[in-house]
Amino acid sequence: MYQSPRRLCSALLQRDAPGLRRPPGPPPPRRLSPTAAPRLQSPRLLAAASAARDVARSCSRTVYPMGNGTSRLYSALAKTLTSSAASQHPEYLVAADPEHLEPIDPKELLEECRAVLHTRPPRFQRDFVALPADCPSSHPPIRVMQWNILAQALGEGKDNFVQCPIEALKWEERKCLILEEILAYQPDILCLQEVDHYFDTFQPLLSRLGYQGTFFPKPWSPCLDVEHNNGPDGCALFFLQNRFKLVSSANIRLTAMTLKTNQVAIAQTLECKEPSRQLCVAVTHLKARTGWERFRSAQGCDLLQNLQTITRGAKIPLIVCGDFNAEPTEEVYKHFASSSLNLSSAYKLLSADGQSEPPYTTWKIRTSGECRHTLDYIWYSRQALSVRSALDLLTEEQIGPNRLPSFNYPSDHLSLVCDFSFNEEP
Ligand SMILES: NC(=O)C1=CN([C@@H]2O[C@H](COP(=O)(O)OP(=O)(O)OC[C@H]3O[C@@H](n4cnc5c(N)ncnc54)[C@H](OP(=O)(O)O)[C@@H]3O)[C@@H](O)[C@H]2O)C=CC1
Ligand SMILES: [Mg+2]
Q1: Strand order in the sheet with 234-240
Q2: Which residues are paired to 272 by β-bridges?
Q3: What PANTHER family is this protein classified in (predicted)?
Q4: In a mutational test of the pocket of ligand 1, which residue from 148, 158, 227 has the highest number of ligand atoms less than 8 Å from its CB?
Q5: Rounded Cα distance, 380 and 345, in Å
Q6: Exposure of 230 by Cβ count < 10 A (0-12 exposed, 13-18 middle, 19+ buried)?
Q7: Among 159, 216, 416, which is best to mutate for testing ligand 1, by the most ligand atoms less than 8 A from CB?
Q8: pLDDT, tens digit, for every residue of 15-42?
Q9: What b/e readout covers 41-77, taking b as 16+ CB neighbours within 10 angstroms?
Q10: Are the beta carbons of 127 and 392 closer than 8 angstroms?
Q11: 211-217 and 189-195: which strand pairing?
């Protein structure tokens, strides 16, 4: 049943804790994409964790002492849950702003995830494809990740993935696969859909990795119809605080032909620190299913209208990530491609002619049969931004005959990851 974030904070983390225990003995090596591995050596997230640690040290609230290795992470989480002060005063847990919890070293969290996943097959390798850029940039690229992570309640209770064993959907392991994917690519900006574990999992963990997060649930999330649900699903937007400062944020309930709908978006204006430029980022999840094409189109128009205002008539560069639930042939796609916001879809650049979307971004088998569709996009202001590289999709062979989700991959949608740079200002 739905519980308020306050209750979730203590109850679910307690339930979560045993799953984070490292099994006896060293975990067998699991392969990580070679493109991801060097980034883990890179100082980016470590610097963020260190910055977050400084914040924690300087704050007046209790900061738990650091221990060794992965036990440090577990003990930090466990202490948050089981300290006598906390258990006697559960409200204290809510009052404890997660930004003030002990920062996590991303390498340690990754190790922890791998330990939980030691019985699962290795991670799939995906490579970044470098894309020709018109103008060189000396600034660090901005990495953006778009991902419908599959709501736990929908995966278990509604989606009918008939070829996916129920054990592959166990939250204790699936959440580690999701975290592993995020940690492998270390995005600066992370846009998620179908998030129904924001307060108990993603917000506390990602804030300790240096991210600032925002969550906007769907008003009538279908998750709430599922027994033992963990609350509504919705969109979440995270950005690394050592790269951006929040200027403004809008939670948008989308309308269709003036009617309020069950779909939402978050749009934020960020101040990028290097280079010193503003950037607007939006995340959305449009209405699903066939028969709703005009509805999606209207929702898309509403979002575009909102974004016109937020970007001050396209003056601020824009990135829009989403599960649009629409193939490129649909009207809503055409509205985005032809909008006066001058948006292009980043993943088209992976095609030979630069004009075609990938053959799929979601691939699953339901009772109705195989569903292979291109529904997820990263739109960007083509005049202000360039795509330096994009993460290749999984191949059909990697996805396997039972499609997604699976023991190897936690969602029915693939993550999309792009590196952007600002073009020179005219
Ligand atoms: N709107 C309202 O006023 C009210 C709504 N509700 C509840 O909301 C639900 C509808 O919500 P709405 O937001 O319009 O939902 P959507 O139609 O947008 O779909 C919700 C989720 O279902 C997934 N989905 C898509 N196709 C299928 C399929 N064939 N089988 C199973 N799951 C699928 C989608 O995943 P993906 O995007 O990955 O394809 C999506 O996350 C109702 O079922 C009801 O439970 C209840 C009361 C009032
Ligand atoms: Mg879904």
Answers
A1: 128-130, 385-391, 416-422, 142-148, 189-195, 234-240, 211-217
A2: 244, 277
A3: CARBON CATABOLITE REPRESSOR PROTEIN 4, NOCTURNIN
A4: 158
A5: 7
A6: buried
A7: 159
A8: 333 323 333 333 343 443 433 333 444 4
A9: eeebbbebbeebbeebeeeeebbbeeeeebebbbbbb
A10: yes
A11: unpaired
Residue whose CA lies nearest to ligand 1 atom number 30: 159
User: How many residues does the structure list for the chain?
Assistant: 426
Pocket of ligand 1 (CB under 6 A): 148, 154, 158-160, 194, 218, 220, 222, 225, 262, 287-289, 323, 325, 366
> CB under 8 Å to 103, separation ≥6 — which residues?
49, 50, 52, 53, 56, 208, 209, 210
Residue 276, sorted as left (phi over 0), alpha (psi -120 to 50) or beta, turns out to be: beta
User: What is the rounded CA–CA span in Å between residue 279 and residue 270?
Assistant: 5
- State the pTM of this model: 0.83
Residue type, 38: P
CA 346 to chain centre: 17
Q: Which residue in 109, 107, 103 sits closest to 58, CA to CA?
A: 103
Q: Residue 150 Cα, ligand 2 centroid: separation in angstroms?
A: 5
